[in-house]
Specification:
The complex is a heterotrimer of chains A (about 290), B (about 260) and C (about 350).
Chain A: H1 2-32, H2 39-55, H3 60-83, H4 91-113, E1 129-131, E2 134-136, H5 138-160, H6 162-172, H7 174-179, H8 184-206, H9 216-230, H10 236-256, H11 262-276
Antiparallel strand pairs in A: 1-2
Helix pairs in contact in A: 1-5, 1-6, 1-8, 1-9, 1-10, 2-3, 2-4, 2-8, 2-9, 3-8, 5-6, 5-8, 9-10, 9-11, 10-11
Chain B: E1 3-14, E2 17-28, E3 32-36, H1 43-50, E4 58-63, E5 66-67, H2 76-79, E6 81-83, H3 96-102, H4 112-117, H5 120-140, H6 155-167, E7 173-177, H7 185-200, E8 204-208, H8 212-218, E9 221-226, E10 229-234, H9 236-241, H10 243-250
Parallel strand pairs in B: 3-8, 3-9, 6-7, 7-8
Antiparallel strand pairs in B: 1-2, 1-4, 4-5, 9-10
Chain C: H1 2-5, H2 9-25, H3 29-54, H4 62-80, H5 84-106, H6 111-131, H7 133-136, H8 155-177, H9 180-190, H10 192-197, H11 202-228, H12 238-251, H13 256-279, H14 287-302, H15 307-326
Helix pairs in contact in C: 2-8, 3-8, 3-11, 3-12, 3-13, 4-5, 4-6, 4-11, 5-11, 9-11, 12-13, 12-14
The chains are: A mainly alpha (about 290), B alpha/beta (about 260), C mainly alpha (about 350).
Chain lengths: ~290, ~260, ~350
């Protein structure tokens, strides 16, 4: 029984990360109907920048802040000068574009920092904590805390602030939003900025747990995408639930079947969702086709 | 005249909205039936159902006596039903000739392997497709533009190309979705003459249109829809004098 | 054979001449091996071009089909002693079967979903290659894969065998492009609804394109296995699939020749980058990755139709200008108001 709980606990931690990636996906998708396949790279860059800044002896807090800022800036530049530029491109072109961006970031990271893995110090100590017979690394708790904070922040932003309402307006009806003086391009930019910032934060907070290197973004991106699809590509609550589900299923699979299959599980889940119910568990029918 | 297409109790819902409600009409062999009505009357929806693009929520569509409910969208062409599109669905990066040749797809059979290996049957069919396509291009006056890329053609010519594409397989029933939209007087008159020739040569036509001149000059009968329901049916003269029709077009100011 | 040749004229003749002369004129084995790799890649990318440019779908799993073909042929020759000539055919069939099953399942998907489904498949396939140790030898792979009799004795022999197959694949695809089926594919790409109205079963055609691309990738994989003599799962992953994607995109998705040109180009760049990496000290990381990523982004932004269609358009414009200059001013006819662009296969 403890074994099961342990696997579930592990799954919750990874699920939390997938949740942030997935929420990053849908924030951008809802506003601009673009699926940013480079989302995972925001996480990678967050972690790598932090490592680099600490490497030049900046204090942890400052490094984190600067790293988040840097990634946010990159996300904004991305939206403003690349995504906006190809606004009228076909769906196929947009897919190729974001794949290219993801590849570009990965390649750039490999050139700047090489292909080695880097370790980041955990926020508190390395000693794991025991809760109800289940062992969790302290960083794992930090991860869950961060996930909670980010999700609550986003919920507050979307539901309670003027900005959030504007973003929602764009998501529901860009034409009407424009007529009310809301600038969808600006909202897109903000959505990218939010995805960049939250992604970077997530990347920083998981770096101590999984080592960070130039290609961490790929798998995280795919699993986050799977969670976003499973959750219905639009419903934030559904997305988060889906993400935790994937994390747990993955963990159970790794524990009970084989650890080599761990990644394959997320992919199998992805394919299964795409084949059986592309509109996701919580999604609306109309979202289902995967075009734009 | 025998009924080629029979539509009964045809209805279609979108979410909570009933866009088409219990519509009933028939297209007879050798006639041009016009489907008219103010904007939002459901004409395009009816056309989309009759061409197999969307399924009806209720009702039956019969072609030559056979029910079309189980027939897949791509099989309509094999029955001899083809169509044009209100928002022009042309293949922009293919030539005008190639666009029209696609129209012959339902009448040809060469498989992927046969085409890749250029077997003799494939070459023969290719020749046939080319000849038929050229014939129709000549008929609609687009022969000089046969090798031009479709994307470079002006609007009016693209409409003609779509008609050629739909006719090249010699369909029994041609469905036209606002073919005159955006055309000037001369072009509309030429198109009307084309439709009359098509009717003379044995193809029946279901025409959805707004252009009253075209309708009045070529339609044998007219069906009028308003807000999803049929409100009148008859000869052009009868429809012109029908008070319900006049009210629908002038009345509630919902256009 | 004459039927297969059709009437491809000048371009094809030039290609043939270049291809036949290549191994005879190049200075050393290095260039020959580059030529062989280009040929292997070209078979895959022509198939990918059919799927992407013609049918308008995206596949990020071609490297997986490549790998499946490679392992199929390798296993059948080493473990069961079958002749490579037989196993190459099986190597085309097995990935085609996978493509059929996968394609059938994902036939309704479009856009991102399709891309991710093929990516997921690619990953699963590669994990399968790594984990199914009893058959594939796992991460360390296989060795002692036999060469192809007669052709495999020399590198030049392999070059001509591979490029012979490239030529057949090229001809097949060019024929297809200009046929009823090819037009059906292209129609699907532009407007599925119009294609359906003309009797085209969109799902079946998309599936056929996918299966064909699997078969092409498979046979190339088999050839790869017998050329290299050893195999491991490493080259059959996402990195390679994206490389294939880049080749098709840069050459021009809608053009078969584009796929060939793109393949040559990317391989040149790849080799050039390796050279650069040796020359510049302290260069770490994947020069490949950043360059290919940049190429994908730049092409979509500035030349989405690709190199070959763009060059053709430039040539047509130049020809039109020349023609205009030669003609004396004449009263313009009503029917010629549109700027005509002549289309070339």
């Amino acid at each position: 029984m403890t074994e099961l709980l342990q696997y579930i606990a592990n799954g919750l931690v990874s699920g939390g990360i997938y949740a942030i990636v997935a929420v990053g996906f849908i924030t951008i998708y809802r506003v601009s109907k673009v699926i940013n396949l480079a989302q995972g790279e925001f996480l990678m860059l967050g972690g790598m920048f932090t490592v680099a800044l600490i490497g030049v002896n900046l204090p942890y807090g400052v490094a984190v802040l600067l790293a988040i800022l840097a990634v946010t800036l990159i996300a904004i530049v991305l939206q403003k000068y690349v995504i906006a530029y190809v606004k009228n491109a076909s769906a196929l072109s947009l897919i190729i574009l974001t794949i290219g961006l993801s590849t570009l970031f990965r390649g750039a990271a490999s050139m700047v920092w090489g292909k080695d893995a880097y370790a980041l110090e955990p926020i508190t100590s390395n000693n794991p904590v025991s809760v109800a017979g289940v062992t969790i690394a302290q960083q794992g708790l930090w991860i869950l805390a961060t996930v909670l904070v980010v999700l609550l922040f986003l919920k507050y932003l979307m539901d309670k602030t003027m900005l959030g309402k504007k973003i929602n307006a764009c998501a529901i009806n860009p034409m009407a939003a424009r007529l009310m003086g809301i600038n969808p391009a600006r909202m897109s930019m903000i959505a990218f900025a939010i995805s960049g910032a939250t992604g970077a934060l997530a990347g920083i907070v998981i770096a101590p747990l999984n080592v960070t290197s130039y290609d961490v973004g790929t798998l995280l991106g795919i699993k986050g995408f799977a969670a976003a699809i499973l959750g219905g590509l639009g419903n934030p609550v559904g997305t988060v639930v889906a993400a935790f589900l994937i994390g747990i299923v993955e963990s159970l699979g790794a524990g009970y079947i084989s650890s080599g299959m761990k990644d394959a599980i997320a992919f199998l889940v992805l394919i299964a969702v795409l084949l059986i119910k592309p509109s996701g568990i919580f999604g609306e029918r109309s979202v289902g086709k995967g075009g734009l | 005249m025998t009924a080629l297409l029979e539509v009964q109790n045809l209805s279609r819902d979108f979410g909570g909205v009933r866009a088409v409600n219990q519509v009933q009409f028939e297209v007879r062999q050798g006639e041009i039936l016009a489907l008219i009505g103010p904007n939002g009357a459901g004409k395009s929806t009816v056309l989309n159902m009759v061409s197999g693009v969307i399924p009806p929520s209720e009702g039956e569509i019969r072609f030559n006596g056979q029910a079309l409910s189980k027939v897949a969208g791509y099989e309509y062409a094999f029955f001899g039903i083809t169509r044009t599109f209100q928002n022009l669905q042309t293949f922009d990066d293919m030539t005008v000739l190639e666009n029209v040749m696609v129209g012959m797809h339902a009448k040809t059979h060469s498989s992927l392997i046969a085409c890749g290996l250029r077997l003799s049957r494939a070459r023969r069919e290719e020749q046939e497709m080319r000849e038929q396509a050229m014939k129709w291009l000549r008929l609609v006056g687009l022969e000089p533009l046969a090798t031009a890329v479709a994307g470079s053609l002006p609007y009016g010519k693209l409409r003609l190309m779509e008609i050629a594409r739909a006719m090249v397989s010699q369909p029994k029933l041609l469905l036209l979705d606002e073919p005159a939209a955006g055309l000037n007087h001369t072009e509309t008159a030429e198109m009307s003459a084309l439709f009359q020739k098509i009717r003379r040569d044995g193809t029946s036509i279901l025409l959805v249109e707004h252009d009253m001149d075209m309708i009045m000059s070529i339609a044998d009968r007219i069906v009028v829809l308003d807000q999803g329901t049929k409100i009148a049916e008859g000869s052009p003269r009868e429809i012109q004098e029908n008070p319900a029709v006049i009210a629908a077009y002038l009345g509630t100011g919902e256009e | 054979m004459k039927q297969l040749l059709g009437n491809w004229g000048k371009g094809f003749a030039i290609y043939l001449v270049l291809m036949i002369l290549y191994p005879l004129v190049v200075p050393d084995a290095y260039f020959r091996s580059v030529g062989i790799v280009i040929g292997l890649h070209a078979i895959v990318t022509i198939g990918l071009c059919l799927v992407m440019g013609l049918a308008g779908q995206i596949s990020l799993g071609q490297a997986a089909f490549w790998g499946i073909g490679a392992y199929t042929s390798a296993v059948l020759t080493t473990k069961y002693g079958l002749s490579p000539f037989v196993t190459l055919i099986v190597a085309a069939a097995v990935p085609a079967l996978f493509a059929f099953i996968l394609g059938r399942a994902i036939a309704g998907l479009q856009g991102y979903y399709l891309a991710m489904a093929t990516l997921a498949f690619g990953y699963i396939a590669q994990i399968g290659m790594t984990e199914w140790e009893s058959v594939t030898g796992g991460a360390s792979g296989m060795i002692s894969i036999p060469t192809i009799p007669f052709f495999g004795d020399t590198e030049t022999g392999m070059f001509y065998l591979i490029w012979g197959i490239v030529t057949l694949v090229l001809l097949f695809s060019l024929n297809l492009f200009h046929s009823r089926v090819g037009r059906a594919f292209r129609a699907i790409h532009k407007s599925e609804i119009a294609a359906t109205s003309m009797g085209i079963d969109v799902r079946r055609f998309k599936l056929n394109a996918f299966v064909l691309s699997g078969a092409f990738a498979g046979i190339s994989g088999g050839l790869y296995a017998h050329y290299m003599g050893i195999l491991d799962p490493q080259p059959f992953g996402m990195h390679e699939s994206i490389k294939f994607l880049t080749m098709v995109v840069i050459g021009g998705m809608s053009s078969i020749w584009g796929a060939l040109v793109g393949t040559v180009l990317i391989n040149f760049i790849s080799e050039g980058l390796i050279l650069l990496g040796e020359v510049i000290p302290g260069l770490k990381g994947d020069l490949d990755t950043i360059v290919f990523g940049a190429i994908l982004v730049l092409i979509v932004m500035f030349m989405p139709e690709g190199l070959v269609p763009r060059l053709r358009a430039i040539r047509e414009k130049a020809q039109a200008k020349k023609a205009k200059g030669k003609m004396a001013p004449a009263p313009s006819t009503q029917s010629e108001q549109a700027t005509e662009r002549k289309a070339i296969p």
